[in-house]
Amino acid sequence: MMDPRDIVFSIVMVVSSFVLTYEWLGRFKYSSANSLIILSAIVMVGALAAMILSVDIRLRRIEKTLDEKERSLRINVQSIESSMDKKMNEVISVVDEAMDVFNRRSYR
Fold first, then answer.
1. Residues 80 and 33: beta-carbon distance below 8 Å
2. How many other C-beta atoms lie within 10 A of the C-beta of residue 13?
3. C-alpha distance from residue 75 to each of 1, 88, 97 (Å)
4. How far apart are CA 94 and CA 101, in angstroms?
5. Do 41 and 21 touch, CB atoms closer than 8 A?
6. Which of 77, 101, 97, 100 is CA-nearest to residue 89?
7. Which of 10, 32, 42, 92 could form a disulfide with 49 if both were Cys (CB 3.0 to 4.6 A apart)?
8. Phi, psi angle pair for 77, to nearest 5°
9. For 47-101, how does the pLDDT look when each residue is reduced to its tens digit (9 = 90+)?
């Protein structure tokens, strides 16, 4: 379902947001609000990663559904094609018989 690559990228996103926020806020005077800002950045990036993974899962599900519908449609078209082929063969044989009868009558 989910590739390990996607999970690794999500973890890298969260860790990099922690490091970036921690280092950026470390340049300023320490405040007790810094840890809250760091936590908020981690949660925000984690939610973004989860949203991206959710969209990826939905797109894969839609792609699978489209493939199934395409396969079903292809089978239906093949079925109709074989049915029409049989009917056309029957019509052709009836027309051939009628032509033979007509030709026999015209030569008599």
1. no
2. 16
3. 27, 20, 33
4. 11
5. yes
6. 97
7. 10
8. -65, -40
9. 998 899 899 999 999 999 999 999 999 999 999 999 999 999 999 999 999 998 8
* AA identity, residue 74: R
Answer for the pair 10, 53: CB distance below 8 angstroms, yes or no: yes
CB atoms under 10 Å from CB of 38, counted, come to 19
Crossing angle of helices 33-107 and 4-26, in 10° steps, is: 150
Distance CA 62, CA 103 (A): 60
